[in-house]
Write a structure and sequence with these properties.
metal ion binding; BFD-associated_ferredoxin; BFD-like_2Fe2S-bd_dom; electron transport; mainly alpha; two-stranded antiparallel sheet; 2 strands
Length: about 60
Amino acid sequence: MYVCICNQVSDRAIKASIQEGATTMRALYKEHSIGSQCGKCCQCAKKLLNNELIKIAETQFQVA
């Protein structure tokens, strides 16, 4: 699904960026220009970011 229609950024692209090391909205902005146009995508992108970071943290906690 598209998260940012203005810049044609999908949830898959955002998740891939997070898996590659993006941990902030600023990092997503630099890579995908999230929120640079109308800004309606910011809330959804932030939820995706938080959920993915929680998943990563839980995975690392289970391994340790």
